[in-house]
Design brief:
globular; alpha/beta; TIM Barrel
Length: 431
C-alpha cells in the first residue's frame, strides 16, 4: 500500500480527455483518485505533497519500439539499463522487440522477459513476440501460446516479411487471437545495397540510395492484406510523404490500421549525415527535408498515430566503420520527448498532439489501461519543465550504448520526475 500523494500547482495535460488545466491531483495506492482546479475535497491529512510549481503533469510515455540486448547482447543494453534510460526520458512503459539471442519466438521466452523485467526494471516492459520463427520470415510462430504468455503484439522487429502469402496467413491467425501485428515495411529487393535516402545527396556522398518505393510498396500491400483479414495492423514506422498519403487513404477505409514514426524522422533529415556520420545511419534512412515536413503534417492530421524512440543500442564495434558498412540504429529513450518538444517550441505541433502520440494512441493500439490521467487508472505520470535548457552528452546517457544522433544537441524541455504506480523512479538532480 503506497502512502497518499498530492501533486499541487501543476499544469495537468491529459490528451485522452483534451484536458489542459492548472490544478491538484490526488494519488492513493498507485492510482489516480481525484483532480481539481482548486482544493481537493477530502484530502488525506498525512499525504506526501509535491509542489510542482507549474510544471506540466502528463501521462507516462509509452514507447512502442525499443530494442534491448538482453538476452544475448547484454553489453549493448540490459533491461535494467534500458529501464534507467526510459525513466530519465519520461517513458514509463516500452514494447521490447523480439530481436534477441535467442529470438523471442516461444512462450517460455516471453515469460522469462516478464519475470526478468519484474526483478530488474523500474518501468513496465511489454514483450513483443516474433511473428515468424527465428525472425526468418518462413514459418509463423505459435500465436496463441505467445499471447497467453503475455506478448502484447507480434512483430519481426528490424526484419520485414517479404512473402505476401505468409503475411496473409500471419494476419489471419493474429486476428483469431486478437493480437496486433506490428510490421517493419521494407522491400529488400528495392533496398538492395542502399544505405541512405536515394537522391542527389547520396550521389554527392558516393553512397548507394534507398528509394521511398522500398517503403511505400510493402506498406500498400500490408494495408490491403490487413483489410482483407480484419487484422489490427500497425506499420512500425514510416519515413516519407508518400507513405503519409497512403496511410491517410487507408485510414478512411479501415479503422483497424495505424502507423508510427521515429522521432528521428520527425526532427532530422538526410543532410544531418554530414560527412558520413554513422550515428545517423538508420532503417528506414533519414529522408529529404520535404519528407520530414510531410511527416510533421501527417502527425498533425492524425495520419501518423504514434511517435516512438526506435531505441536501438549498438556498440562501437559495429558503428565505427565506413558509413556503408556500419550497423543501423541509434539510442533514443532519453531524448525522445526533448527532441519532440523542438516541434512544440517551433510552433509546428501543439503540445497535446505531441503527447497524444506518445501516450493515448500507443495505449489504444495495444489495449493498455495506462496512457492517461483519469480516476481509477494507474498513476504513471511525469513532471516536465518545458523550457529547461540542456545539452546531450554521450557520457551522461544512462544507456549502455552511446550511439545517439543528438550528441551535443541543445534542447529546451526535460523530464524532472517520473512516477510508475505512484512511486518515483526518476528525479532530475536539480528537481
Amino acid at each position: 500500500m503506497n502512502k497518499s500523494l498530492i501533486v499541487k500547482n501543476t499544469r495537468i495535460i491529459d490528451p485522452a480527455s483534451s484536458k489542459d488545466m492548472l490544478g491538484n491531483v490526488l494519488i492513493e495506492d498507485g492510482l489516480f483518485v481525484d483532480m481539481a482546479e482548486g482544493q481537493l475535497p477530502g484530502s488525506p491529512e498525512h499525504a506526501d505533497i509535491i509542489d510542482a510549481e507549474g510544471l506540466v503533469m502528463a501521462p507516462g510515455l509509452i514507447d512502442l519500439r525499443v530494442f534491448s540486448g538482453e538476452p544475448g547482447h547484454e553489453y549493448r543494453e540490459t533491461l535494467a539499463s534500458a529501464s534507467d534510460a526510459a525513466g530519465a526520458g519520461g517513458v514509463t512503459s516500452f514494447v521490447r522487440m523480439p530481436d534477441t539471442l535467442p529470438v523471442t519466438d516461444d512462450g517460455a521466452l516471453v515469460d522469462y522477459i516478464l519475470r526478468r523485467a519484474e526483478i530488474t526494471s523500474k518501468v513496465r516492459v511489454l514483450p513483443a513476440a516474433a511473428m515468424t520463427k527465428g525472425l526468418e520470415g518462413m514459418d509463423i510462430t505459435e500465436y496463441g501460446l505467445l499471447g497467453e504468455a503475455g506478448a502484447v503484439c507480434l512483430t519481426d522487429g528490424r526484419k520485414s516479411v517479404q512473402s505476401a502469402a505468409l503475411l496473409r496467413t500471419a494476419f489471419t491467425y493474429a486476428a483469431n487471437f486478437s493480437l496486433p501485428i506490428v510490421h517493419h515495411v521494407q522491400d529488400y529487393a528495392l533496398t538492395g545495397k542502399g544505405v541512405m535516402n536515394a537522391g542527389l545527396y547520396a550521389t554527392a556522398l558516393g553512397l548507394a540510395g534507398i528509394p521511398t518505393e522500398a517503403e511505400t510498396i510493402p506498406l500498400e500491400r500490408d494495408l490491403q492484406l490487413a483489410r482483407l483479414t480484419d487484422t489490427r495492423y500497425h506499420a512500425a514506422q514510416i519515413s516519407c510523404g508518400r507513405s503519409v498519403n497512403i496511410m491517410a487513404r487507408h485510414r478512411h477505409e479501415n479503422d483497424l490500421v495505424s502507423c508510427g514514426a521515429s522521432i528521428n524522422h520527425l526532427t532530422l533529415n538526410e543532410n544531418d549525415i554530414g560527412s558520413y556520420r554513422t550515428f545517423f545511419k538508420l532503417s528506414p534512412p533519414l529522408r529529404a527535408e520535404e519528407d520530414r515536413q510531410a511527416m510533421i503534417d501527417g502527425l498533425k492530421s492524425g495520419a501518423i498515430d504514434v511517435i516512438h524512440s526506435d531505441h536501438d543500442p549498438q556498440d562501437a564495434e559495429v558503428k565505427r566503420h565506413p558509413f556503408a558498412e556500419a550497423a543501423d540504429g541509434a539510442v533514443g529513450l532519453e531524448t525522445m520527448l526533448a527532441a519532440a518538444l523542438r516541434l512544440y517550441h517551433s510552433s509546428q505541433v501543439d503540445l497535446i498532439t505531441l503527447l497524444r502520440a506518445m501516450t493515448q494512441r500507443p495505449a489504444e493500439i495495444l489495449g493498455l489501461e495506462t496512457g492517461r490521467i483519469a480516476r481509477g487508472r494507474a498513476a504513471d505520470f511525469i513532471l516536465i519543465d518545458l523550457d529547461y535548457p540542456w545539452v546531450v552528452e554521450e557520457q551522461g546517457l544512462r544507456s549502455r550504448s552511446g550511439n545517439t544522433p543528438f550528441e551535443n544537441a541543445k534542447f529546451s524541455g526535460k523530464v524532472m520526475r517520473t512516477f510508475v504506480d505512484g512511486r518515483e523512479i526518476f528525479r532530475h538532480c536539480e528537481a
